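User: For my dataset I need records formatted as: sequence, then structure tokens, nothing else. Please produce one.
Assistant:
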Amino acid sequence: MDLGILISGRGSNLEAILEAIGSGKLDARARLVLSNRPDAAGLEIARRHGVPTAVVSHRGHSSREAFDALVVARLREAGVTTVALAGFDRIVSRVLIDAFRGQVVNIHPALLPAFPGLHAQRQALEYGVRIAGATVHFVDEQTDHGPIIAQAAVPVRDDDDEASLSARILSEEHRLYPAALQQLACGAVRISGRRVIGGQP
């Protein structure tokens, strides 16, 4: 699997993915780490792992589609076949989704379909759920909506605040995301219409 990883910030899920590749747990080649923000800390993580990087600013474009067209061009130049969103803070358009149809994945800090969008951990606490978690899913045209590949449950403690719950969910994300990508890499999971065929890692 020739992987392109899109980031916007610190890159902790990126690091988990690259470490899994380095240890042989994920059968993939990281072809490019691309950020829409030049100061993203994850770019330095990519460089430390010897992975090529690119910055495509989201500013100054006439539309999301115009921005995504530039992103697609950079990914294709790098030989990318599968795209992993890892803390990428832009909503992607059909331009990117269609270019890598069935091969764009994302991780979200909630048990989708519950609590899509921003501040999922805060939403979970405000709603009073007893179980939160993380979801890896295929990306479609709706936010945090595509077919689910894998999920991990995280119990909510009585003394949790947003920071503590977020930290425990993030720890599960670091385990779940590389494992789900490996399922995709080895053909154990695939998308068929709105359904995912294959097992939970």
